[in-house]
Design goal:
This protein has about 750 residues and is an alpha/beta fold. The chain contains 18 helices and 34 strands.
Amino acid sequence: MKLLISFMLFLCAVVYSRSQAEENRPPLIPNPQKVEWLEGNFILSNNIFVDCPYSKLRTYFLSRMKTLTGLNLKPGSQRASGKKITFRTEPAAENQNKEAYSLNVAEDGIKITAKGEEGLFRAMQTLFQLISPELKAKKASASSAIPFCRISDSPAFSWRGLQLDCSRHFMTKDFIKRYIDILAYYKYNTLHWHLTDDQGWRIEIKRYPGLTKKGAWRKEADGSVYGGYYTQKDIREIVAYAKERFINIVPELDMPGHSMASLAAYPENSCTGGPFDVSIIWGVMKDIYCPGRDSTFYFIQNVLSEVIKLFPGQYIHIGGDEAPKDRWKQCPKCQARIKAEGLKDENELQSYFIKRIASYLSSKGKTVIGWDEVLQGGLAPGIIVQSWQSFQGAIDAAKQGHYVICSPASHTYLNGDPENLDLRIAYSFQPVPKELQGHERDFILGGEANLWTEQAPQQTVDGKLFPRLLSLSEVFWSNPENSDYDGFYRRVQNAYADLSALGIEYGRESKIFSTKTSFDGSRKEFVVEVSQRQKDIDIRYTLDGAEPGTGSPLYTSSIRIDKTATLKIAAFKNEHSLSRANTLSFSFHKAVGSPVTYKSRYDERYRAGGGNALLDGVRGSLDFRDGNWQGFEGTDFEAVIDLGSSKEISKVAPRFNQNVNSWIFLPLSVEVSLSDDNINFTQAKTITNDTPLKNSEILTKDFEADFNNIKARYIKVKASSIKKCPQWHPGAGSDAWLFIDEIVVE
């Protein structure tokens, strides 16, 4: 028995020792194809020589090491004495992937070999990840030890990209260069740079100065002007910077849809002739390029002729997505084009448009990429399809013999909330659809992460992308058949310190926490319970409306609220804020708990808490889906509140939501009237909306009706809806929504 116990204790010690070793290992992401960890460490110091036959690579490596660690390594050669980091190529390895490499860390030095410079560069990124985050953060107590190991590595996919939308929100030149370094660090090799859309034109075209003079700027609802663009000098600098880091930049100029910024500057390229403004709302606009005019094609070709000179890479992305055919159906020139070219319908007219542009770019030696809508009406020869709507576009294109970039929104659109697309879902992505067999699978080049920036200005990009961008880096580089989420998740937890050391303001893995609010009638208190959904975080809160910080109270049990207050709850990891605070407002007013009689019932999809939701004391946030808002589609709102007895009333303030991009508009006006008998209503107060409806900002507004302490039992609230989306809206003519929350009575 003693021997058995001793053996079990020995096994436990071994398991513990192994787990501790794993815990202390650098969290390599993406995980190399083969890693062998060995006993011992190589110590970095200023006395280490760097022997690399490629001067640009050597200069980059020395500079990057200085930036990351503060160490001044020395350029060396084979003759240099002392410990070295040695880079060598083996061009004879004909069958080896150009990005494959081997990396060996041993007592006598670090040796890296690859087929060529690109493989050496990928190995450098692995070496950077082997350096402790403490050293990267330049802490005095940091260790400069790199564990002995043998690594053999190569990518699973040749296309590993990030699509970054700089049209909706402009991002500075230095920010783009910073992201090129971040992409390189995690072994991405493509920056898909979205430069034009309805909300802004971001690339200087010298032949058409109006594109940046007018198309790069939008006048917001409050009168402010927002925008920016990259000069051709900026672009050349960024492209050169990316080339040195083996990142290929693929520019995207959207056409024929998402072209309002261009049409605002040159409306003659539309079907109607305008005039147009650069859009300040998101969505799909009906005014697009007119393929019935030859002048439209000459304009686009002239633009592309300058783009080609700026981007020497093989690929040009021309969008092709979300192009409504409404204007084409009504345009005599478009209809004449359909007839003259023997086309069946507007879908084939789009195919004609894409094929004509693709033919021009092909004549210039470029390969065209388009979103999967380019499948409509027939594919242009040689075009690469980027499949985003689902996997079906990838399947259809591959079966037709076209190369594919697979990036379905369900797994790669990181602008989506982590509640719906979390770390695990992103990691589960398989770029090659299971429906493809044999040689069909060879047409899948790889995939892309995508960040559309309607709700993501530059300062929020890190939190949107990380840590989920780590999932996709491993999906694209490592063999998906060898995926191990549990192992990956452990490495992510250890990688947070590295992200902080790199200055990356990471966000959420998933939904961080959820809240449940109830009312304790006996104690006249609201009770808020918080359920934690993400591991290893601190939840902190404030009750005075201030933003929570690391010194705010730590949530340990239910929060009880017995007076009007604004509760803000936020999550922190390693003293780093993971997202903006979740806000809950509580109002103890005279009508809390009073019955409400509706003239028209709310939509069941947005019922909040049902009949008492408007008088439960809990006020909604900016998010109309937070469970506190009631929605009314295409109709006015009217309801009567019964206070139970006559009470003095000084103010009635119903709150409404506006989110134009979700078809939600503030009421045109709100009328509040009082009664003692629920028949005769007097003292009517009308509040007219003074907030512009054409506004991309999500907001809430209280329509306050002031009364001079008038006594009444019943309160009628009527809100006049816009009912239909206006003509300037993407949903013009569709039912508009009216969303109402708490009606505060004081």
